[in-house]
Amino acid sequence: MPYKLYEPQYRYSLPRWRFMYWLLCDGDLPESIQKRLLSGPSIQSAAMWSGTLTTLAMTGIALYRAPDPWFWLWFVVTLGLSGYRAWLHSRAKHQWRHKSGVTPTDQIYLASLLWSLSTGLGTALCLLSGDAVLQVLAIPAMVAMATATASFSHGTPRYAVLQILLLDLPLKLAVPFQPEPWFWIFVVQAPFFWGALYLMVHALNDTSTQALLGEYQSRRMARLDPLTELLNRDAWFREALAIRSAGREALPVSLLYADLDGFKGINDTHGHRAGDDLLRYIANEMRHALRYEDILSRWGGDEFLILLPGANPETSRLIAQRMIDAIGTLRPQYPDLGLSVGIVQCDNWRGTDRERLEALIAQADHALYQAKQNGKGCFQEISA
Predict the structure, then answer these.
(1) N or C: which end of the chain has fewer CB within 10 A?
(2) What is the DSSP pairing of strand 379-383 with strand 338-346?
(3) CATH code at 233-383
(4) Is this structure's pTM higher than 0.90?
């Protein structure tokens, strides 16, 4: 059976509070990887309900054996946090169903930290109660939850360490306030327990991050031309055909087919390494000449294909001339270098399929041929 990376059932948006972003995210990683690590098992509903039911069972047993005000307070706080967490998860699922981009990530993780603190303080109460049954039930349950946290929350190591401390530290702090000397073993072993979980969290995090980075790079390189890091043909077709207009309104687009003039001579004169460096530079200049929503591809050799969604003829002419002028700045170094562009205008992109798109590309190629015939270093446009 082929190995498959963990895929979260639901993806959460990145936190918006500055402290929570620092606690949960690594800003050096791509956003898609941050979201994968953020949406690990610890934040999914199954883990939430498992921890919630365990804690509610413990508070119920504690109330049955020692119904004093502190255990009542623990029960009420646990019940309130459980309801709040369930409501947050329900709200997140509602937003997923309606494809909203923002989930209550900050609140969900904050509620989880408050639950950890409540559980840790409740465990300390069980120790201080002197009830052997509560001590035997609560302490191993807390240790199990702390260990599960190290595993489930390893995608967010700072958060995992804080959650472990909130679960375990109250027990250690309660030891001096009870009479049994043997419980001091918890204090003695605390640095070893925390250190082991810290190493576990970071080892799992490093493994997951490297695996996700490898997957990210593989997917990225499958979409990109390795030299210029522009979209390759297959990726360009996928993105172009994925464009949809809002409602039933017509969506005009422009298709630009660009080809470098005199590039072969540069390769022959200066060598292929210089030619590769020049292609990378030109690809970057083209990116700067385009709008955010435009789709740019290296079509092959020294040819480029650009789709301009929502562009009217005037906009497409402006962008074509901007690219021609950008390449023209290289004339002092490469006198024969230029850019010719063929433009095809499409009044309505709605319903475009692969066959129609290839026909538009052929028309843009024909317009490019006319631009070459008209003296190169210019653009020529036709209507679809």
Answers:
(1) N
(2) parallel
(3) 3.30.70.270
(4) no
